[in-house]
Amino acid sequence: MKGHFTLLILSGLIGLPDRLRSEDKPALEIWLDADFTNYRESSVAIEMGAQLAIENHGSAIQGRQIIIKRVDHRGNSKRSKRNIQSFKTSEQGLAMMSGIHSPPLLAHRKLINEEKVPFLVPWAAAGPITRAEGPSNYIFRLSIDDSKAGIFLSNYAARTLKSTSPCLLLEDTGWGTSNLKTMGLGFQENKVQIAKVVRFQWGIKSNQAKHIAAKLYDANCDLILLVANSKEGAILINALAHHPEPTKIPVLSHWGITGGDFHEVVPHSIRSLLNLKFIQTSFNFNQIKSTRKKQVFDRLIQTNPDIRSSSDIKAGTGVSHAYDLTSIVLLALQSMDLSQPITKLREQLKHSLETKPLRFDGLVKSYKNPFKPYRKDNPDAHEALTLEDFAIGYYSKDNVILNVE
Questions:
Q1: 246 and 348 share one domain
Q2: Total structural domains within the chain
Q3: Which of 11, 73, 79, 270 is the most buried (most CB within 10 A)?
Q4: How far is Cα of residue 346 from the mean position of the Cα atoms in its chain?
Q5: Cα separation of 364 and 284, whole Å?
Q6: Leucine-binding protein domain: which residues (predicted)?
Q7: Residues 398 and 273 in one domain
């Protein structure tokens, strides 16, 4: 019995002793470097999931509180760089966590790895993020990975939707470019010729979107694959739906559109007109079948007064991914000596995530040693999810996301 009680404390199921001891020890911080200004829904969802994981582990480990610290980069890569530089000198910053945007991570991947900043990625999907060019790799992702997502979407388009003349509508960023490459490879494997590729900038206006819609209809596409976040996605979807051509082109989208208020700006009548579907991961708060996962959801409701049902959760994948990823990090911390200097703790966290036996029954899946030491001949070493964890989703008439079953 004595050994069993000790195990419960170590696993974080009994949190009270750590909370009592944490008063005289400095907290450890996870800096959430996300866009709380323009994409608040996804950023808050990530924060909510990470916080839930921390609370489920007793809020402290070895007497040190674990705290989420917001640092809003507002979608600006230069501001994100300043946040990384500030983190480097922090005496309490243990790790950073990103939001919906890939460009800040792509722009500063070299800086992150050179400065040995453990960076947790529960949403941003661009393929190169976790694939360092040098020997050091401090970025860990539990999310969709575009090196696989583009293949998944193109396979679904060709094999399930039977597309023979797809068009690609991609934002003009590193995220869009990585999807151009992988979708192109996917369609090539399916012996499907892409009819047209159109790129667009962040902040696109309605008139510009109308011109893009005209180009796509003129290209005789039978399907549009869209890579956009919610703001630009809403403008483009509305333009495609309101084009005078009577037969509308269906749209298969990346999941960026789910990170904001897209479902409020684009009504069900428009979404259904274009038969809009998008990539997701396999767990969905609106389709919980496991008793264990239902208990996690009940805990989420108890700790967040604004949530009374699954339909109140905005950007649910941000919650589930951040919950699973933060839980894995907390398990890694339990085997570490947290009295070391902060720079040593960051290095040790990377080592523990890569080498310690870590098992966790999460929301998306059950994990067994989800990360490995990174090598160029093992490009998925810092990817916790695989193709088998992806799904296709859609917005219901009631504006909730459901997965195609």
A1: no
A2: 2
A3: 73
A4: 22
A5: 8
A6: 39-336
A7: yes
Q: Rounded to an integer, what distance in angstroms lies between the CA atom of residue 169 and that of residue 286?
A: 29
Q: Indicate whether 309 and 348 sit together in one domain.
A: yes
Cα 399 to its chain centre, rounded Å, is: 20
Token digits of residue 233: 């996605």
Q: What is the 3-state secondary structure (H, E, C) of 189-249?
A: HCCCCCCEEEEECCCCCHHHHHHHHHHHHHCCCCEEEEECCHHHHHHHHHHHHCCCCCCCC
The Cα 239–Cα 220 span in angstroms is 16
Q: Same domain, yes or no, for 237 and 98?
A: no
Q: How far apart are CA 209 and CA 260, in angstroms?
A: 19
Got the DSSP string for 354-368?
A: HHS--EEE-SS-EEE
Whole-number pLDDT of residue 37? 94
> Is residue 371 a contact partner of residue 380, using CB atoms and an 8 Å limit?
no
Which domain, by its residues, includes 272? 147-283+392-403
CA pair distance 403, 23, nearest whole angstrom: 44
Cα-trace Rg, the chain: 21
DSSP classification of residue 24: G
What's the CATH code of the domain at 335?
Answer: 3.40.50.2300
3-state secondary structure at position 253: strand
Task: Please answer whether residues 69 and 32 qualify as being in contact, where contact means their C-beta atoms are separated by less than 8 angstroms.
Answer: yes
CA-closest candidate to residue 149, choices 201, 185, 117: 185
Determine the pLDDT at residue 24: 73
| 358 and 239 together in one domain | no
Do 138 and 157 sit in the same domain of this protein? no
Q: Mean pLDDT in runs of 10 for the chain (405 residues)?
A: 36 43 80 95 96 95 96 95 97 97 94 98 94 92 94 97 98 91 96 98 96 97 96 97 95 90 92 97 94 96 92 92 98 96 98 97 98 94 97 94 92
CB 176 within 8 A of CB 233: no
**Contact predicate 384/142, CB 8 Å:** yes
Residue 332 neighbours by CB under 8 Å, 6+ apart: 349, 352, 353, 356, 358
pLDDT at 1: 43
* Residues 28, 97 within the same domain: yes
Going 296 to 276 to 98 to 390, the CA torsion angle's sign is: positive
DSSP for 169-195 reads: EEESSHHHHHHHHHHHHHHHHTT----
